[in-house]
Amino acid sequence: MALAARGFVVLCPDLPCFGQQQAPPGMPVDQRWEELCLSRALAHGSSLLSLTLDQLRAGVAALLDYEKTDGLTVSVLGYGMGARAAAWLAWVDRRVGAVWLHSGLGQQGVLLSHGRLLPRHTLLPGLLALGLDQADVVADLLPRPIGISYGRSDRVAMPEAMEPVLTAVARRQVELPHARVVVMAGDYDHRFPADVQQAIGDHLLAWVD
Questions:
Q1: 69 or 12: which carries more pLDDT confidence?
Q2: Is 64 exposed, middle or buried (0-12, 13-18, 19+ CB in 10 A)?
Q3: Of 29-33, 124-128, 141-145, minimum mean pLDDT range
Q4: CATH class entry, domain 2-208
Q5: Inter-axis angle of helices 81-92 and 48-64, to 10 degrees?
Q6: pLDDT at position 209, please?
Q7: Which of 18, 23, 30, 151 is the most exposed place for a label (fewest CB within 10 A)?
Q8: Which string of b and e fits 101-130 if b means at least 16 CB within 10 Å?
């Protein structure tokens, strides 16, 4: 609402299986519905990631495909699983001019080694077989402005899985010293504290200005 009051157009899309795309009557609900959606996508040679990106890119087009927005970009903010989706969206769509990723990043290899399931919506089959992981995707977003925030006590987006991502971004920043990168770590768990939201908003607005 605050952004809209300042003249910005804001879009808050549901991911597949959530919101208006929840299970219809007769189908399993909640986590089981997500599992069914993933199984259906894989059975058709696709993935929830590709469906997610198709929908998010359509949202970007809805914001920018007008004569008055020619040459403009969007800023993307993702929290939790949305942080991973935001990173992938920025990676595939150059219309994303700045991105902020909160409490959701982590190397898939590290998560698997700790017995954690990978988020279904951002799982790219074969990524690890290519010798790649989330750190490569996030670091490749530079020189566009990137913000990363997380809680040191987060048991979902584990700090151990975050470290390789932060290291990769720092190394890429050495090659691109003019890139704008902000990293904020706080003493909280898998939450989105109000003061962190305010700080993120200030950074994103500064990048836009």
A1: 12
A2: middle
A3: 29-33
A4: alpha beta
A5: 70
A6: 64
A7: 30
A8: bbbbbbbbebbeeeebebbbbbbbeebeee
Q: Tally Cβ neighbours within 10 Å of residue 7.
A: 6
Q: What mean pLDDT is predicted for residues 136-148?
A: 98
How large a percentage of the chain has pLDDT more than 70? 100
Backbone phi, psi, residue 176, to 5°:
-125, 70
Closest-CA residue to 173 (of 137, 199, 206, 140): 140
Torsion on CA atoms 118, 80, 53, 43, rounded to nearest 10: 30
Q: What is the mean pLDDT of residues 77-86?
A: 95
Q: Parallel, antiparallel, or unpaired: how do β-strands 74-79 and 181-186 relate?
A: unpaired
Burial class (CB in 10 A: 0-12, 13-18, 19+), 20: exposed
Whether residue 2 has pLDDT greater than 80: no
* Closest CA relative to residue 13, chosen from 73, 53, 48, 72: 53
Which residue, among 6, 5, 1, has the nearest Cα to 208 in the 3D structure? 6
Let me know the angle formed at the C-alpha of 51 by 46 and 53, rounded to the nearest 5 degrees: 120
